[in-house]
Design goal:
Belongs to the SOLO family. 72% of the residues lie in helices and 4% in strands. Strands 1-2-3-4 form a four-stranded parallel sheet, covered by helices on one side. Strands 5-6 form a two-stranded antiparallel sheet.
């Protein structure tokens, strides 16, 4: 309990109970308890209190005798606490004080209330009327913790010493074998250390609390002995654990280095083996968009497999960089060599993948442009193969413009194909033997021949289309000219019809005198010249259409429509013009004769002898009046009048008035002839 007798010897209390007490267990327990104090403490002796108040005398006697065999040298006094008036008669049968020499210690029987005669009250627990504070379960728990810590720490020290000493062996192979066999301790060092620190803290806390004057559990000699024992074990554990951590660190570093080296070789072996073999079998570029896309899909699968290994490369590179930053000189050279080897292989393989991807992309673009150009050429050829049957010149011009645009688009497409093809050829020519780890001259020749063949084929097709476009352009230009001639010829017919219409409707005046009539006749001749020019122009245009039709090997509507119309209108115009000329000439003769008669003086005797002139002018006037009432008869039998009836009536009225004047003049000339004989 921590209590001491007056000689500073420890007090050992043996409480007995009503149940049967096992002497073997009691002997083992006493051996354990007596092993706790130090030798110095044991030398001061023990005072044993045997509490027999709840036990039988035979048991008490057996316990006292057993003390002779267990601790005869250390026991100085045995106090047997007896029950009140219970053993009085039996004590006479066995006197402990008579057996002192044989037992080796003094035995006294004492009541609990008289125990203070031999031991101070402050050194006795409350069970014996003392004031010493003692919690047996708390002591037991702490003692179990101490025993567990002592056992675990001692075992752990042996294991750590074995591991640490094994790591100091000569060869690397022996060291690794030793570490492999005893690498993990049976218990966690951190847990044991934590338990030791908590135990030491508890022991130290109890020691300090025992001197503060308060009611507390008094320090025990076993605890004072436990503190340096725990501290010593902790110091040894820390030392061995530090060495063990260094061994683990070295082992972990070596293991990590070996794992990194193994993974590096896995990456390198795969990239230089199966990875390179995959690229080695992929050299074509395809002969179409679909073929190139299939090769791209296959390449994406290859890239996907490489990506997994590249991810391992990134992780390994980070691990190597972390180890390099740690700065272990002995591993720097090896780590840098691994890092360089890994980087070289990965970058070389990544370059090959990128080159292959760019090559396939360029091939896909080349085939895409080639397909677009082929479709453009097919469209242009289809347009050229269709016979041209436009309705007018405007549609021909639009078709010709569309043809030129398509040809220009083909030119741009061919130029783009050449650029893509040359770029692809440049990439192929830059493809060295290291790209796939073998000579690829034969495979490259096939790719080059294919590219050049596609470009040459497109060039030939484009040349053929150009030749056909030239022929079609010439034909369409001739057709434009043909339509223009037909349109102009039709316009000439319209103009001639308008001249005929103007001749019939507006050219109706015959003049008021000879001078005016002559002016009208001169204007009419000029009008006829204009019509003649129009007719000649139309004839020339129609002749040109005939030549163009012969060149184009097509029939024209001009010979069956425009030319007959032109000839018909021209004949009508000619007949009408002749009738107009005849009327104007008759009117000139009429006005000239009439004016001459009307201007002659009566004093001129010769005038009176020319009466036949009057008859002539009357005949001319009547003839002119008759012509005014007669329509123009065309060759086809149709008839047409000059002007309106009112216009003709006005012209006829003017002629009649003039004829009246001439008749009046005639009468005046006859009157002198009649009067002369009468006179």
């Amino acid at each position: 309990t921590g209590g001491k007798d007056r000689r500073s010897g420890l007090i050992l209390t043996i409480p007995l109970c009503l149940e049967q007490t096992s002497m073997d267990e009691l002997s083992v327990t006493l051996d354990y308890l007596l092993s706790i104090p130090s030798e110095k403490c044991k030398a001061r002796g023990f005072t044993v209190i045997v509490d027999g108040r709840k036990s039988q005398w035979n048991v008490v006697k057996t316990v006292v005798l057993m003390l002779q065999n267990v601790v005869p040298a250390e026991v100085s006094l045995v106090c047997v606490v007896k029950p009140d008036e219970f053993w009085d008669k039996k004590v006479t049968h066995f006197c402990f004080w008579k057996e002192k020499d044989r037992l080796g210690f003094e035995v006294i029987l004492v009541s609990a209330n008289k125990l203070t005669r031999y031991i101070e009250p402050c050194q006795l627990t409350e069970d014996f009327g003392g004031t010493l504070t003692y919690d047996h379960m708390d002591w037991l728990n702490k003692r179990l913790v101490f025993e567990k810590f002592t056992k675990e720490s001692t075992s752990l020290l042996d294991e750590l010493a074995l591991i640490n000493n094994g790591s100091d062996k000569g060869t690397q192979q022996e060291r690794e074998r030793s570490i492999d066999l005893n690498f993990l301790p049976s218990v966690d060092p951190e847990t044991v250390l934590q338990t030791g620190h908590e135990l030491l803290s508890e022991l130290q806390q109890r020691r300090f609390n025992g001197s503060d004057g308060g009611v507390s559990w008094s320090p025990m000699d076993d605890e004072l002995l436990a503190q340096p024992q725990v501290m010593k074990l902790l110091d040894s554990l820390r030392e061995q654990y530090t060495r063990y951590q260094e061994v683990c660190r070295q082992r972990s570093k070596r293991t990590q280095l070996e794992e990194i080296q193994q993974k590096v070789m896995q990456v390198v072996n795969w990239l230089e083996g199966p990875g390179s073999e995959q690229l080695r079998t992929q050299w074509g570029i395809g002969d179409s968009i679909r073929a190139s896309q299939a090769l791209q899909q296959k390449h994406e699968e290859i890239e996907s497999q490489h990506s997994e290994w590249f991810a391992v490369y990134v992780e390994l590179n980070q691990q190597i960089a972390a180890l390099l930053n740690a700065g272990d000189e002995e591993d720097l050279v090896e780590l840098k060599a691994l890092q360089q080897q890994l980087s070289d292989v990965c970058y070389r393989q990544a370059s090959q993948l990128e080159f292959r991807q760019n090559l396939l992309q360029a091939a896909l673009e080349f085939h895409s442009v080639a397909q677009d150009l082929s479709q453009q050429l097919d469209g242009l050829l289809g347009m050229l193969c269709v016979d041209v049957a436009p309705a007018d010149g405007a549609s021909i011009q639009q078709t010709l413009k569309l043809l030129e645009e398509k040809l220009k688009s083909v030119d741009l497409g061919l130029q783009g194909l050449r650029e893509k093809g040359q770029s692809l050829l440049d990439q192929i020519s830059n493809q060295a033997s290291w790209a796939y780890g073998k000579d690829v001259t034969i495979e490259n020749k096939e790719n080059v021949d294919h590219i050049q063949g596609v470009m040459e084929d497109m060039q030939l097709r484009k040349q053929r289309c150009e030749d056909m476009v030239d022929v079609r352009r010439l034909k369409m230009l001739q057709m434009v000219q043909l339509f223009k001639c037909e349109e102009d010829a039709a316009q000439a017919v319209e103009w001639l019809s308008e001249l005929l219409d103007a001749l019939l409707k507006t050219h109706i005046r015959l003049g008021d005198d000879a001078q005016e009539t002559k002016v009208l006749l001169e204007k009419h001749r000029k009008f006829v010249d204009v019509a003649q020019s129009t007719y000649d122009y139309g004839r020339q245009l129609l002749q040109a259409t005939v030549v163009l039709c012969q060149s184009l090997r097509c029939t024209s509507r001009s010979s069956g429509d425009t030319l007959p119309r032109l000839n018909r209108v021209w004949k009508q115009f000619t007949v009408t013009s002749e009738e107009r000329v005849h009327r104007l000439e008759t009117a000139v003769a009429f006005h000239s004769t009439a004016e001459k008669i009307l201007q002659e003086c009566p004093e001129q005797p010769e005038a009176f002898n020319e009466m036949d002139q009057f008859d002539e002018i009357e005949a001319v006037g009547k003839s002119l009046l008759d012509r005014l009432t007669v329509p123009v008869v065309y060759p086809d039998g149709s008839e047409q009048y000059f002007g309106s009836p009112s216009d003709m009536a006005s012209a006829a009225e003017h002629i009649r008035e003039k004829m009246k004047l001439v008749s009046l003049k005639k009468q005046q000339l006859r009157q002198p002839e009649a009067t002369t004989p009468e006179s």
